[in-house]
Design goal:
Four copies of one chain form a homotetramer. With 264 residues, the first copy, chain A, is of the alpha/beta class. Helices cover 34% and strands 27% of the residues of chain A. Chain A has a seven-stranded mixed beta sheet. Chain A has a two-stranded antiparallel ribbon with strand order 1-2.
């Protein structure tokens, strides 16, 4: 592949690779500069496709000038939303954020402050299907590339996440696989752990079982009430989710076997 | 209680307390200097017992000059054993270590090097009961206060751990409650976590479910094979186990509701 | 002291103590519930003062119902400002924030969004004295208890910080005492460190030499440009500053010998 | 270069690269499998040299079957020495350790236990030059590739470290550049830091100023005496030094501008 790129005048800036000897798979991320391309993009793309086919490689091609479009899904907690929007405004996240979707009206003022459309789609078991149809429509309308569940408190259907495989990032407020499901801080308090964690992962059909992108922990003790864990955890959730989103936006994550290769 | 101690000339050096508002329990650790005791130990002990009874308090009394006696249980891995023995020799762990028990002969040379008796008690499902009887005998003979499972690869029976409640410390090579049971590093590898952990806890009748004393984690990535996780994990296991043993030897751990209060 | 409190019906909720054997000083923080006070506050205060004098103790008395008043000083960076304001709004910081002072107009919109007065006091070497006079006036007008320098890029005079001893918290973007002074991220880049840090401390007459309240670090590598360090460091600065402010607001910090005792 | 390797049948297993845009330098580490080499090593080496010269590249070539030979320098502290020897015995460090050099006889029993020659070379200001001459001789005799100062308490001369540039790894017990020089734990105690650190670096003519390979920190508080810092620090020193040695043995460290590129 390096030879193909070289032959077309595509200058390799970065190349990371990983071999999984167990799964017997080889992974590579190549970042190229096309400013001195000898042919045109179409020719290059055809050459890449040809090589990939010959060697049985799967590949994805991203152009950095095509800035990704992100939809944020939120419920009532503002901390992850604010964090992402402030990082975005500060230039940390290279993307457009045209729309925020919520099952509650509470965070509309935050969206307004940042000049972003805020769409309320209420969700209860009865309305789930219609609500998701509306959400999917919205994603199509806004030409969305990535959905970020920024403490969105509703579970997306298997149908939804399958259609958006590896394009929905969720933040779970525990160190997965510990404390799957509801109220992980309460579970952590009950178990008496000495560290709490947060996990960013791609959402899959099985709750909290998707490929893990990033995790981190913070120390706690018997002195911490559930409220203290919630407070400490907020700092983790923000940072871990933001790192995962940034890695995705930079096309640094490859997924296989329900795991991630993160080229950072 | 402070008044009783004061009244007998027992000088309070340290006092830590914790109130659990959920369990509605109050915990306190008081360290006193008896060098200017106005009465004698017996009188003081009776006064403490009287106050404790009057207010419905549970208490334990330890004399620092009574150095605790520790038995180490090991199998084939030497890293935790060496770590504890070197810390002990270096003065980090205030205890006597009169005996090392193992289900394998492999680590006898380490015991010899440190001049400690090494007793091999093989263990298979058939012999488990007789083996444990012998172990309990040994603990009695050596007047043991604390059993440390330093990567001991056999599960102690419910009967054993009940008799030694809160006096058997185990190191589990995962961030509990994630990856309970066998081969946690393999489980961690399969799940694709981005941090691995280690947990020191008191052994109870339910495997890996006892009160957690200490935990820590280290970062890993897709680049780490199971062997890499095992290697990185060893450093965690050593440090986390040593911290837990030290806390226990200093009488800094109170247990209730399958959780610990650690006064550090 | 415990006896005096007890005698007046002041119920001790928490008591932390620390003995510094080198400095030969004893420190204690006692939190009491006055709801069942047998006398009145004046009587209690006199009794405390009397005991303190008798035993040569220094003490400070805070009433929790007297919520502290905080002034934030900022320049052009918004991340710490936003972080503190959002935490305040979310109930993490028990204080009033009546005024934000800046040497630049840039962050006025943030202040407006949170409904807080924003006062621009430009500052250059020539105007420093007059500017500080105005600042001190402002603090007096607003009855301020604590000044937080949330990435304020001007050095306060020795006169100012002496008048506000242990009541001005600064965040320095390095792991002090490494990289004192200007541009610590550039210094860190030059030195090739593998971790960068942030330090919250009380401002004193000597730059970056005040008593350290809290510190934390994050891993970096040769891959990180100065801009990457700045970005990673922002997350540290926010968290470390917020923790320090929270500790101060809870009256958990005692200062002596240019060091802090933090009762957390 | 990739083409040259490919052309000779050298199969690229790993390739890491780094571009420093400030220093305008490009770094690459390539690991190749020579089992299907079409030519012989000599031919390959000449081809590599030719390409390197043509493009003005500096390069080093290591054969994995040529196991590195390491000399450990120690004084009286045993923790780093034991740690390295146990890791070596456990297969974590791919090297030979034929000799341990010390300015004191104290650790001879440790060397004996592991079957390694222990040479005492006393050192005081008067004898420094002769002592170093003897050390250099010893390194030559044993065909040493790497010197590890495992808490060696003597400063090597500028002449020595220049001759052994980037081949002497030292562990300094602070988070450099904080607390350069003598008694860093005492300095840390005096300054009242909330974290202590350890730094592994290549020794250079200027004390504690060499290229940093690895660093880590651990939390401390006002409760920690100097002795507590020393104890906590030992765990850091061991782990940080071992990581640095391992990285060096794997040829993962490139040095330039007094900084390191670490390809891990």
């Amino acid at each position: 592949m390096a030879q193909v790129l070289f032959g077309h005048g595509a200058n390799i800036l970065d190349a990371d690779q990983h071999t999984d000897p167990v799964a017997q798979q080889f992974f590579q991320r190549i970042r190229v500069d096309l400013s001195e391309l000898l042919t045109d993009k179409g020719t290059l793309e055809r050459a890449i496709a040809e090589v990939a086919q010959r060697f049985g490689m799967t590949y994805r091609l991203y152009y950095a000038e095509r800035v990704k479009r992100v939809a944020l899904f939120v419920s009532k907690y503002e901390h992850c939303l604010y964090d992402l929007l402030l990082r975005h405004r500060g230039g940390e996240l290279a993307c457009h954020i045209p729309v925020i979707v919520s099952n509650h009206p509470d965070l509309a003022p935050v969206a307004r402050e940042f000049g972003i459309e805020y769409v309320v789609i209420p969700k209860d078991p009865a309305s789930q299907e219609a609500a998701e149809a509306r959400e999917l429509e919205l994603l199509a309308e806004h030409n969305i590339d990535l959905v970020v569940l920024a403490r969105y408190m509703r579970v997306l259907s298997a149908k939804f996440v399958s259609a958006w495989e590896n394009r929905v990032i969720n933040i779970h407020h525990s160190f997965l696989p510990a404390f799957v499901g509801q109220k992980p801080y309460h579970q952590a308090y009950e178990r008496g752990v000495k560290l709490i964690g947060a996990t960013a992962h791609y959402a899959t059909a099985v709750l909290d079982q998707g490929p893990i992108i990033e995790q981190d922990v913070i120390r706690c003790s018997h002195k911490d009430s559930v409220e203290d864990l919630v407070r400490k955890g907020r700092d983790l959730e923000k940072v871990v989710l933001a790192r995962a989103v940034r890695l995705h936006l930079d096309d640094r994550i490859l997924v296989y076997d329900n795991k991630t290769v993160v080229f950072d």
